[in-house]
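Example 9 (inverse folding). The structure is encoded as follows.
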């Protein structure tokens, strides 16, 4: 494969590994997933008749991350390929196959054998899932079979550490952080480095790429569902504005005082004009509750014909309210699920837990809170709109 690619030192490390199990753990933005995707593409175009399994816990998350990333790289490198979109199989000119199947499709995985397996966000899967996948890593010819696992080290008691890294002999691992990726923006680097001022555990995990401890998680009152229900009592939306950070929109269905959530937008570099087009494409007619710190953006969206209101900004009261409710999140809401799993309270320098969440990967959490709390708070308070200007009475 004669392609000029931009790669990090992590890619170079990968190319030298011969162990059966190769683990890449590290902080946010360290190029773990990107480097593995590049490396598997190299393998698929330089080796004949190889079968690759690329997997995550659920199919929607797999489509929106690994599949999207590899297709983007193939287009960027202008490499020829064929794709079976119904089966999610990419075939290369070397007769190699990149097969995308999720862990929750066990019958399709157990019926096959592979030369290479990549498990993205490996903290999502169980030890039994890993053992089953390891049994599938046996396709001929022998001597080249490898499994790659990538994840943020969120919990030092996770089986990935206690059962793989600490016990198995045929395992190599690499710890990385943002300093290993020279292509990150200065703004993102500043955001990661600022975590030291918010929460030492978050700083260890996402900035330094060191093992952390899963603690002080805010929401325990949620579970996943396959899809958004066809019938609910009412629908509302929560919107958190962003540009360099993600703009986040969540759809919320209310049914019998329970809440069904679906991630609709999670994207950087959206201007208000871009956002309005996205809202129009979603055909939103219901009320949108948005960040009240952005009155000019709210006004512009209101003038574009949307029923948009500023939100109640009390973080503590909003969180306390939502913690008392039952939440159901659709399985395709991958960023929403990732955020809620890690959404935790800050600690001060003495280790005391504060009633304030860590400000990192929280855009959909904010959007959810804006909508649910503002919509459901004390009914004696009314938000009245007049020409796009709103008054709390």
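The amino acid assigned to each position is listed next.
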């Amino acid at each position: 494969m004669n392609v000029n690619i931009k790669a990090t030192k992590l890619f170079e490390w990968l190319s030298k590994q011969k162990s059966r199990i190769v683990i890449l753990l590290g902080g946010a933005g360290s190029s773990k997933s990107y480097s593995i995707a590049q490396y598997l593409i190299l393998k698929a175009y330089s080796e004949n008749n190889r079968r690759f399994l690329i997997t995550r816990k659920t199919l929607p998350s797999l489509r929106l991350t690994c599949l999207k990333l590899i297709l983007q790289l193939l287009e960027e490198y202008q490499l020829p390929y064929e794709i079976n979109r119904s089966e999610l199989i990419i075939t290369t000119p070397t007769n190699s196959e990149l097969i995308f199947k999720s862990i929750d499709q066990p019958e399709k995985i157990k019926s096959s054998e592979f030369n290479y397996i990549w498990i993205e966000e490996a903290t999502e899967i169980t030890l039994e899932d890993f053992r089953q996948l390891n049994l599938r890593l046996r396709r001929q010819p022998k001597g080249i079979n490898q499994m790659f696992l990538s994840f943020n080290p969120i919990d030092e008691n996770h089986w990935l550490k206690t059962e793989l890294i600490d016990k198995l002999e045929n395992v190599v691992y690499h710890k990385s952080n943002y300093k290993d990726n020279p292509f990150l923006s200065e703004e993102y680097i500043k955001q990661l480095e600022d975590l030291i001022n918010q929460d030492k555990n978050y700083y260890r995990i996402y900035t330094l790429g060191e093992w952390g401890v899963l603690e002080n998680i805010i929401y325990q009152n949620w579970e996943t569902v396959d899809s958004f229900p066809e019938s609910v009592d009412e629908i509302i939306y929560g919107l958190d504005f962003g540009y360099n950070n993600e703009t986040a929109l969540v759809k919320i269905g209310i049914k019998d005082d329970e809440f069904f959530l679906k991630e609709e937008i999670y994207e950087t570099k959206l201007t208000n004009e871009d956002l309005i087009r996205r809202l129009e494409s979603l055909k939103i007619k219901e009320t949108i509750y948005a960040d009240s710190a952005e009155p000019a953006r709210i006004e512009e969206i209101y003038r574009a014909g949307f029923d948009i209101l500023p939100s109640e900004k009390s973080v503590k009261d909003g969180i306390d309210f939502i913690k008392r409710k039952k939440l159901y999140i659709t399985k395709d809401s991958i960023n929403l699920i990732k955020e809620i799993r890690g959404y935790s309270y800050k600690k001060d320098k003495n280790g005391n837990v504060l009633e304030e969440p860590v400000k990192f990967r929280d855009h959909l959490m904010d959007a959810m809170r804006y909508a649910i709390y503002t919509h459901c708070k004390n009914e004696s308070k009314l938000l009245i709109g007049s020409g796009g200007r709103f008054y709390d009475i």
